[in-house]
Structures are given as C-alpha cells and as structure tokens.
Amino acid sequence: MIHNLGRGAMADIDAILERLEQNEEIAKKFFEVEVSILSILNFKDLFERLLTEIREKFAIPYVWITLIEEGDLAPLIPKLAESEVVKQRLNVVSRNTLTTLIGNATEPILVNQDLGLYYRLFPESEKYLIRSLALVPITLNGQTIGTLNLGDSSPDRYAPGMDATLLKRLAVKVSVCLSNVVAHEKVKLSSSKDDITGLLTAKAMEEILAREFQRAIRYESTLSIMLLEMHRGHGKERGPQAKVPEELLRRWAHHLRALVRVTDVVGRHDEQRFLVVLPSTTKGRAQKLLERLTSFLKEHPISLDKVSPPLGITCGISSTSDAGIMDPSSLLRKAEEMLQRERRKEMVTF
C-alpha cells in the first residue's frame, strides 16, 4: 500500500519519521542530564554540572541560572562563587523581581518578543544578543526560587506554543535534586555555625579564606578581606571593660549579613572580631563597604539601652594586591596591622 502513495505523501512520512527520530534523540539527551545530576549532593556541583551539560549536549549558546537572594538559599549562594563556571552564569535577584516577571508560573515560559521585559534576569554581557528565551521555573518546598534560563540568538529556537514537555520534566528533576542538596548542605552548615551569631565559625572561615585565596591566584582576580573589631565606647574608654555582650554581637551579625553582597562570606574570627571575605573585590571597593557599615551604625545605633555606649567598629582591610601577600596568613596579618593602626588613631583622636 505504501508503494501506491504519491511522492508528496512519502515526503511527509519521511519528514515525520525524521522528526520522531530527532525528538527521540533530544529526549535521550534530557534523560542523560537528569541521570547526571540525580546523585549530586553539593550545591555548587549541582549547578555547575547542570549548566555545563545543557550547554554542551544541546548546543545552546546562553545558559544561566537566576536565583532569589532571600530564603533558604541565601546562606548557600556564596558557595556558587567558588565555581568560575557558575559565577559567570549566575544572576541573583530579589523575590519581588522574580515574581514581577514570571508571577507564580510553574510551567516553562517561551518568549521571542519583548525580551526587554526580562532583562533583569539576563547576564549583563548577553542581554542584547538573545532573541528567544526559555525560562524554566525552579522550585524549592513548593515555592519558585529561580529559573533555569536558555537563550538563543535565533528567534525561532524558543517560540510560544512550542512543546515544552521535556523542559517541564527537567524542571521537576532539578527541583527534586535541589531539595536533596539543600537538606544535605543545611546539615553541613549547622555544624560550622557559631552558636551566638549564627555566622560561620572561625575554623570554617579559615578554610573558606584558604580556598578563596587559591581561586584568586588561579584566576588572577583580586581578593580582599575585612577584619572587624567590635567595641563599645571610644578612645581610652575602650578596653576589657568595653567587652561587647553576646546580644549585641548577635544583633550586629544579623545586620552585617544583610549589608554585604550575597557572594561575600561573613563569619567569626575570634571573640570580638568578625571576618568578611570579599571575592573579586578591590581594596577600594572594600573601603566603600566599610563606609556603608560605619554609616549604618551611626544611623542605627546598636546598644543594650539608651544610656549604654553604642556598638562601634574598627576595621583592617587587606587585599591580594598589597605588597608582600604570599598566602592567606600574610593576608590576615596585613589586615591585623591596619586594624592596629586604626585603633591607635582612634586612641589619639579621642
């Protein structure tokens, strides 16, 4: 019977068979991606593997992740900066920004017109090169916490109305993996958290500083640190009697975490000091952050009561661009030297 079909009908059948074969190949690649990520229990590795495999297997030129800066993911986002693969393809936005752009969508969104509406989700260097876009919502505990974004310079790659079943299935698998990873990472984080402030312990910060130092050297970027000494009173009033109560340290830690970038790492250094690790940050930008912290304390005094002296900070800043920096220890020593100089200045001033 097939032999009696006309050439046009045969061509249609060939086209259908070819399309089915292509769809089968695409489905196979999606399955390979899903299998690859299912066993991962590390936050950084999950997104690094996901971004790399999707880009390579499907020849998609623009693949990146958008995550919200609030919620359960907030303490984990700095880990993503440890990966150059993820760091360059990560965009962190507020929950309000994400909700404004995609609402409560759980299905993939395909667009090839009016892309300017979504520029806030785009990587800074690529927004004007993308002509079609697939936004794949990622959920955690039933809440949308970000999107996996696939972009192409062709307006035909992702068009409204196209079948997005495989993208939807991938989103479900990514969300399941993310839930497992977050649960696993929370257990690790809880064991490295300071009981008083909820920030990372001095030991955990030592490990992070060593890792960030090596990354800065390897990728020829600038790493800066801030050593913040907390005190009450000024000048000669300072001393053992000015020891900062735990309640004030706890309150300051809460504000400090909110004032730095999500990619910065904050933790205890010793009893009265905090350490802030600033990846890809020059000394000048670190100084700007110090000015912001100082202004905050002036505008929002932190004290036990109206008559108690408010909390103050003395800061030492150092950077891998400073002379004589050979390792993490010398970076810390440089910050300590600057802190001591600043402390002497305050003693003279007051």
Keywords summarizing the entry:
350 residues; alpha+beta; Beta-Lactamase; Alpha-Beta Plaits; 2 domains; five-stranded mixed β-sheet; four-stranded antiparallel β-sheet; 10 helices; 9 strands; 18% strand
Write the layout of secondary structure elements.
Blueprint: H1 7-38, H2 43-58, E1 62-68, H3 77-80, H4 84-87, E2 90-93, H5 95-102, E3 109-111, E4 132-140, E5 143-152, H6 165-190, H7 202-218, E6 224-232, H8 246-259, E7 265-270, E8 273-278, H9 283-299, E9 311-319, H10 328-349
Parallel strand pairs: 1-2
Antiparallel strand pairs: 1-5, 3-4, 4-5, 6-8, 6-9, 7-8
Description:
By secondary structure, the chain is of the alpha+beta class. It folds into 2 domains: 176 residues, Beta-Lactamase; 148 residues, Alpha-Beta Plaits, CATH 3.30.70.270. It has 10 helices and 9 strands. The strands form 2 sheets. A 5-stranded mixed β-sheet has the order 2-1-5-4-3. Helix 1 runs antiparallel to helix 2 and helix 1 runs parallel beside helix 6. It starts with 6 loop residues before the first helix and ends with a helix.
State the major sheet.
5 strands, mixed
Q: How much of the sequence is in beta strands?
A: 15-25%
Low-confidence stretches: none
Basic shape: elongated
CATH class of the largest domain: Alpha Beta
Short description:
With 350 residues, the chain is α+β, with helices and mostly antiparallel strands.
